[in-house]
Amino acid sequence: MAGIFWVVIVGCAVGILFPLALISHILRADAGTPAMQDVNSRIAEGAWAFIRRQYSTIGITAVVVAVIIGLILGKLSSPAELEMLGVSAFGLGWRTALAFLVGGLCSCVSGIIGMWTAVKSNVRCAAASHRGLNQAIKIALRGGAVSGFFIVTLSLLGVTVMFFAYGGATHPEIAPHLIVAFGFGASMVALFAQLGGGIYTKAADMGADLAGKVEAGIPEDDPRNAAVIADQVGDNVGDCAGRGADLFESTAAENIGAMIIGTALYLLSIKAGIAPQVAIGWVLFPLVIRACGIIASMIGILAVHSRSEEEDPMAALNRGYYVALVLCAAATVGISKVIFAPLCQGWPWLMLAGLVGIVTSVLVVYITQYYTESRFKPTKSIAEACRTGPATTIVTGMSVGFETTMPTTLVICAALGLTYWFGILSGLDLPWWISGAYGTAIATMGMLMTCPFILAEDTFGPITDNANGINEFTKAGEHIRRVTDHLDAAGNTTKALTKGYAMVSAGLAGFLLFQAYFDRVLLFQGREGQLFNVNLVIPEVLIGAVLAVMMVFLFSAWALRSVGGAASKIIEEVRRQIKADPGILAGTSRPDYARAVDITTRAALKGMIAPGLLPVLLPVAIGVIFAQLRISGFNAPAAVGSFLMVGTFSAILLASFMNNGGGAWDNAKKYIEDGQLRDEAGNVLPKGSPAHAAGVVGDTVGDPLKDTVGPSLHIVAKLIATVTLVLCPLWIM
Q1: Is 1 inside a domain boundary?
Q2: CA–CA gap between residue 21 and residue 19 (Å, rounded)
Q3: Are 457 and 317 in contact (CB under 8 A)?
Q4: Contact 463, 125 (CB under 8 A)
Q5: Does the pLDDT of residue 111 top 70, yes or no?
Q6: Is 376 exposed, middle or buried (0-12, 13-18, 19+ CB in 10 A)?
Q7: CA 567/CA 561 separation, integer angstroms
Q8: What gap in Å lies between CA 650 and CA 648, rounded to an integer?
Q9: pTM for this predicted structure
Q10: d(CA 314, CA 306)
Q11: Burial environment of residue 633 by CB neighbours within 10 A (0 to 12, 13 to 18, 19 or more)
Q12: How large is the C-alpha radius of gyration of the chain?
């Protein structure tokens, strides 16, 4: 099995060398006119200023939390767990704290890489659009690929290094349990990064839209709009830095969850007389299959090109995605046979579970495209509703968003049920719930194989958005703006499908993390190998479930309030500047962009604290309170377990509504701006018309949903899992 591990080494090498080559290619590309470079330098300055302040706050918080976690585990870890792990209480405490800090640090680095790449690519994509659609697509996607490949590789490399540093070579059944906090650290940092960046970007975007487009009658990216630079900065710190940290924690947490389930199979194989170097395949499979995904995604990225200047950008992106998918499916078949055939006669069922994960990723992409692309009925229905005003626009958009929860739910349920069944059919000599869970773990890994490509498409969105803004700011011609308008609309779809992809993978991974939590509870209670039942008829279990639903809505309320408060301040600032200096609208004076950037920065950093702490503290409080009431018969582990399960899927479904509904509102507005909406007489309803104003209102409602709260919710789904998994000694007595 040592030979197959070379795939991980090769995958990591490709994941580092390929984006370095892309960076060289991007930096050699034309950076545009001096005016374009001046705008981009302002964007970069604001983005770096925000990132420094945000990560300074996050860093201090992470260090404090790491110390607290280390002290808690050092004091409260059970003798059974310490004996199983082969460490002292102090050893478990410092290892967990260190893993938390390393995960948090890697998440920070991932966010910074995402932002740096976007800043360098924005202006070059704008310049490339002057030469045609194909050139602009290549710059934007390859700029996004730098971020996507570095983030996925950093996640794979981080988990691999921590696994072997904590004794994975000699005790692979122990190391995954010791690195759980790596995922917790990554999740917590990602939540604050996504929240802070999301509040920033949407406050600035709403301010630019409402104060600029609707009130002053100027475009959002017009140089007379004081919020324009803050809006462009927001695309980088929210959509790039925040999403980079988000997807890093997704891949890390899901990898570790699959490896933990693999440890049970490793021990079983050793008892059956299989050599350890062969049995370790159960634990290493998630790492190997992810490495194959990196290589396949690289080939898919290189396959993307537009066949004509009139082709829909999504068609070019989809072709590259199909190439990556075919290669991932082939790798799944081959790696499954090499690793599982010597271990299990029913290995084809496990292979099929991996293929189901790949098919699931395709379904998510198509569902998201259907509900958010302007060529399909849902988005067109919102645009049609704009003809009768903002109220019908909002109502129609909400109906589209709520409807998207249905196909999302069906895909998650089908994937969970089918892969769980495949795991049982594989004939593993384990309790059925463990073998079934491993089938789901393999499906999750299969789904995540194309993560580098999906992440590249995600960063493609803000790069094209900024490129469009730079072109408008520097008064590029209408034919050039048309290129970046098409790319921007495609970017809205790619951002939405990335969120859907992360959401569904969170649903599959949530099941793995449930299993890991209950296994650890049973270990503390000396009931290893049993099935943990969560009965909603029991009062404390029902209370935990109800509080979980409440937490999801309260988190959303606080995050939305933060966006609304910050947006109000930006709108007031744009109004103040226009009123104080008539030369701004006349084009003879330059607005004070720096003040708008500073207002947004302070509001975002303040607004991320309360919602960010809620999913960390509430499950701990529930567990501790019910543990103190245990003499009355309350079952604290079951109460927290119900909180975990109900909270996970409540967050996923609400995120589906927000992500897809918000994306549809945005593209409905762009559908109108592209001249596609007509009145009953067949006349085009142009920019500045009442229908366009209604579309802008719908877009501003959808913005904080799709770019702040929605993406944060699927981080919440995994954060509550990792925090309960790491801190459960607090309420297990």
Answers
A1: no
A2: 5
A3: yes
A4: yes
A5: yes
A6: middle
A7: 10
A8: 6
A9: 0.84
A10: 9
A11: exposed
A12: 25
Residue 13 lies in a domain: yes
Residues 345/432, Cβ–Cβ less than 8 Å: no
**Does a structural domain hold residue 382?**
yes
CA distance 38 to 43: 9
Report the pLDDT value the prediction gives residue 243, as an integer from 0 to 100: 67
Weakest mean pLDDT among 17-31, 84-98, 610-624: 84-98
Tell me, yes or no, whether 618 lies in a domain. yes
Q: Which two tokens stand for residue 714?
A: 């699927």
Does the CA dihedral 474-478-481-485 come out positive or negative? positive
Q: What is the mean pLDDT of residues 658-670?
A: 89
Q: Which residues of 543-558 are buried (b: 16+ CB within 10 A; e: fewer)?
A: bbbebbbebbebbbeb
Residue 684, beta-bridge partner list: 678
pLDDT-based confidence at residue 221 (cuts at 50, 70, 90)? low
- ∠ CA 216-220-222, nearest 5°, is 85
At CA 259, angle to CA 258 and CA 265, rounded to 5? 100
Q: Is 344 exposed, middle or buried (0-12, 13-18, 19+ CB in 10 A)?
A: buried
Residue 363 CB burial class (10 angstroms; 0-12, 13-18, ≥19):
middle
Q: Which two tokens stand for residue 733?
A: 């007595």
3-state SS of 302-365 is: HCCCCCCCCCCHHHHHHHHHHHHHHHHHHHHHHHHHHHHCCCCCCHHHHHHHHHHHHHHHHHHH
- Taking only the tens place, the pLDDT of each residue in 549-607 is 999 999 999 999 988 888 888 888 888 888 888 887 777 787 887 787 788 878 887 88
How far is residue 503's CA from residue 509's CA, in Å, rounded to a whole number? 10
Distance of CA 296 to the CA centre of its chain: 21
CA dist 637 and 401 (Å) reads: 35
The per-residue pLDDT of the chain, averaged, comes to: 84
Dihedral Cα 273, 278, 282, 288, nearest 10 deg: 180
Count of beta carbons in the 10 Å neighbourhood of residue 34: 9
Tokens of 494: 């790619």
Residue 104 to residue 101: CA distance in whole angstroms: 5
The domain total for the chain is 1
Instruction: State the pLDDT confidence band at 278, using cuts at 50, 70 and 90.
Output: confident
pLDDT in tens, 130-170: 888 888 888 888 888 888 898 889 889 988 998 888 888 88
Look at residue 47 in the predicted model and tell me its pLDDT.
77
Which pLDDT does position 574 carry in this prediction?
Answer: 82
Per the DSSP assignment, residues forming a β-bridge with 277 are none
697-732 in b/e form (b: 16+ CB < 10 A) is bbbbbbbbbbbbbbbbbbbbbbbbbbbbbbbbbbbb
Domain span holding position 322: 6-730
565 CB-near residues (< 8 Å, 6+ apart): 603, 607
Query: pLDDT digit string (tens) for 450-496?
Result: 888 988 888 887 888 878 878 877 877 777 777 777 777 777 777 77
Predicted confidence (pLDDT) at residue 403 exceeds the cutoff of 70: yes
Residue 213 DSSP label: I
SS3 683: coil
Tell me which residue has tokens 């409540």: 650
